Fold:
Amino acid sequence: MSTSAVAQPGVNYLNVRHGLASWLLTKDHKRIGILYLLVVTFAFFLGGVFAAGIRVELTTPQGDFVAADTYNRLFTMHGIAMVFFVLIPAVPAVIGNFVLPLMIGAKDVAFPKINLLSWYIFVIGFTFTVGAMLIGGVDTGWTFYTPYSSNFSSSNVMLTGVGVFITGFSSILTGLNFMVTIHRMRAPGMTWFRLPLLVWALYATSLVQILGTPVIAITVLMMALERAFGFGIFDPRLGGDPVLFQHLFWFYSHPAVYIMILPPMGVISEVIACFSRKRVFGYSFVAFSSLAIAVFGFLVWAHHLFVAGISPYSAMVFSFLSFAVAIPSAVKTFNWTATLYKGAIWWKTPMMFVFGFLGLFLVGGLTGLFLASLGLDVHMHDTYFVVAHFHYIMVGGAIMGYFAGLHFYWPKMTGRMYSDSLGKLSALLIFVGFNLTFFPQFVLGYLGMPRRYHVYPEEFQVLNVLSSAGASVLAVGYILPLFYFMYSLKKGPLAGDNPWLATGLEWQTQSPPLPENFPQTPVVHEDAYEYSKRGAKVA
Amino acid sequence: MPRLPNGLATHAEHVHGHHPALQHHFETLEQQHEASTLGMWIFLVTEVMFFGGLFLAYMLYRIWYPQAWSEGSLELDIVLGGVNTVVLIGSSLTMALAVRAAQTGQQRATVNWLLVTMALGLTFLVIKFFEYEHKFELNHVPGPNFVFEGPHADQVQIFISLYFAMTGLHALHMIIGFGILSTVAWMAHKGRFSPAWYTPVEMSGLYWHFVDIVWIFLFPLLYLVDRAHQLS
Structure:
């Protein structure tokens, strides 16, 4: 379609005010989304640098690039940066902040000041964590298992713990804000079953953030009290139970996986409907499967503890429930596939990332079933099989979905288009690089290579070199968007209000949107994804 | 003043007669109040989960070490704890009266009841301070200097750790509540509230009651573990 004829609209949220203060004191959800985007992008590349360190070390069987202690710090800081400062905030805080009020026809989130506060809390938590990294980092693994973290580690556990603790409140406040927004701020006619599926996904995510994140906060606090003042809650010398820490930690950290994956799943629903020119197959099933994942997600945590000495009977129950959580995930995957069926597929960059997501999430999800099996998990536990599995979910799933969302909403955020061919190239590089990096790790793990070691037997070298080579391809795929997005900001062709001819209120307002989103509060007359009422012919 | 985005703010205000407390992104005061109420209740749910981690640890170790729990609990001062319970329940009453006064538009009474609530909260904290001080004198404080005579000294340390963590976190919530109430009292003093809009009074009331309820659980769980044994 021709975009050059569209004039850049006058007043929008980007040009309504200027200067640093207008950004740092903004209460506009769209600007706050952009602020999150900046920090998350920085954290993503920071985490990537640590990952690069890991992959360089593992190209040879010997520990020649870094010492064992440095290696421990590298994978710990990679995990902490990526989990707490990229995966958890990426889709909710960046894309969710930007599009949620637009999608439901609201002027803003329910609590704009709290929204800004949550960004500041995030930045303060990030500053503590980066500060800890700069003065030497932390070596406990991102899981902070006691008693190593509380009694023995000589690295900067406290400072990092404080950073994670603070950051948690940012996530809680975002969840709270979104939940109230979805309940109370919907435009007239925007009933629950007309909500875009991304909104359902964000709602389910908020539920997990609200119920789960306070538990990690108190857990990290107990660990910190133990470390700082010698409290004895997890100290086996006094009769305390380190496994209690693991239970509490995973009570949050397993549901946190759903904080990471549910919002990208919502993005996938938006994008797949738009680029198939069809209503999402089984709308209500996809909507409720988000809630089901959020609820089931709270009942599976002990599958991380199968080898920690828990009762075999509870292990059986947790194994069963872990299998059960695959059902709503499968519902989504099947429904997305059914949406493609007889759709008029439009091959654009966001859709490329969706295809990437579908393939990688499928592998990640199915290998999760291996690990949920009691017998197999004993063999696989703490091997590279686990590493490969959760990277397929978190990177192949969550980050792919995040990139799909960024490429889908970029024209709305900035009013400008990016190069579609470079976008497709990036999606392809990421898909190929990702598989090259992580598929060999399944094999390595199955053959018995444990995670978190900087040396390994020589027979594992070929697969490790393949993995490191893949990581280089992956890095190029991730850096590429940085360039074409920057270029698009300055020189990209104007996008127009609705470059994808998409349904949804966010596409009915101008790009970039008005400071208050809509000229007047919209009234909704139709269900989500009524693509049949719009022209199916696009090219 | 509502924060409207452009120079039309005062104009719009005249045309629609906006209440000064109505924020620009809400349609009505009612919508705004409902959003705040829901937000506050959700926040309290997060608080329940936050304290929940400690309660879980308490439950586990109480089942594992009932003897130590009995010994540790008998060390706590039931009189000071009991007085504090009465003080806090009283403060919940005065808080409810403050909300009622705001609801019915009695500005003076709102301020006064808030001040009484704050005074009771302060009383609680002072009593708590003396309880803590006594623990420090006896070296009943978790850490390397912990001293306790008895057969289960190590496990009693876990009890005392949880005692300090739970009551400390509770006291921190009291201090934050004190700060919130002083802000709300100042707003009430300035005449910001009316029967049409008194959301901050009600929200701070919800928070205060929550902190009170936490203590209602903490007192029996920590102070009354095995008192019958002591009486016999």
